[in-house]
Specification:
Blueprint: E1 6-9, E2 13-17, E3 23-28, E4 31-34, E5 39-42, H1 46-63, E6 70-73, E7 78-82, E8 85-86, E9 89-96, H2 100-105, E10 112-122, E11 131-132, H3 134-139, H4 145-167, E12 171-184, E13 190-195, E14 203-207, H5 217-220, H6 226-236
Antiparallel strand pairs: 1-2, 2-3, 3-7, 4-5, 6-7, 8-12, 9-10, 9-12, 10-11, 12-13, 12-14
Length: 254
């Protein structure tokens, strides 16, 4: 499927015009970044793995009734997605203390939180994506009260679904980041849907037996074997067979 002109390039993905109005082609890069791109590397095969894992998770969410931008995978690095107007917020759902919340509140990493916590961050790399409140969001017009309610409800539902999906293959969903967008219909009415990706790049995933990290923390903390950990997630989800290597030229399992 031919793609149109490049519309946007982020740290891990590129968006191109899609073949039909209201569609985009989302291309997954091998670039790895952390700390708002202050740390960078290229990890061969990471984009292929994220594409396949996100396809698997988004497809499962679709079947469970969660509206999202995913339409279909096109090849090993690209997906066809619905075009949306991205809401400039990162929604972080936390089940277990890890990363910044452990540091902010002096919690032991791995400590179970009293309940699932939902946090909002304003998407702006120059400002290091500051944490914001619902008052900030509505005051500055980033989202309405109704949209916030939808995003929180959908985030908690996605958390329930994905926690079960990963737990079934021995993986604990510690926390993850979601992004949402507004999808317009022919009458310019909007609905909020899930966008971006769900992969080890934006989820903390720990082995349930050993607590071994299987996500981008391996890159952030110089633990090594980043793509190997991503590949293990793919194998457990049934996307890859044992000892299979996913490459751009290997369309096995498509």
């Amino acid at each position: 499927m031919s793609r149109g002109k490049k519309l946007y390039e982020g740290k891990a993905k590129i968006l191109y015009e899609g073949p039909e109005p209201g569609t985009l082609i989302q291309h997954f890069k091998d670039d790895a970044t952390a700390f708002n791109a202050k740390k960078k590397a290229t990890l061969e095969g990471k984009g292929v793995l994220n594409n396949r894992i996100s396809e698997h998770v988004m497809g499962h969410l679709t079947r469970m009734g969660i509206p999202n931008h995913f339409i279909k995978r096109l090849n090993m690095r690209e997906q066809l997605v619905h075009q949306v107007e991205i809401i400039p917020l990162e929604v972080v759902i936390r089940n277990v203390a890890a990363g910044s919340i452990a540091k902010r509140f002096g919690l032991d990493e791995g400590e179970e939180l009293p309940r699932t916590i939902v946090e909002f961050y304003y998407k702006d790399d120059a400002l290091d994506d500051p944490m914001v409140s619902e008052d900030h969001i509505t005051a500055f017009g980033w989202a309405s009260h109704g949209e916030l309610d939808e995003m929180v409800a959908m985030s908690l539902r996605v958390n329930d679904i994905c926690s079960g999906l990963f737990a079934a293959v021995g993986i604990r969903l510690i926390d993850f980041k979601l992004e949402f967008g507004r999808q317009f219909d022919e009458d310019q009415l909007t609905r909020v849907i899930l966008a971006d990706e769900i992969s080890p790049d934006n989820c903390r995933l720990w082995d349930m037996a050993t607590n071994e990290k299987m996500d981008k923390d391996r890159f952030r903390r110089d633990l090594g074997n980043v793509t190997e950990a991503y590949a293990e997630v793919a194998r457990r989800l049934g996307i890859m067979k044992e000892n299979q290597v996913l490459t751009d030229t290997n369309e096995a399992g498509k």
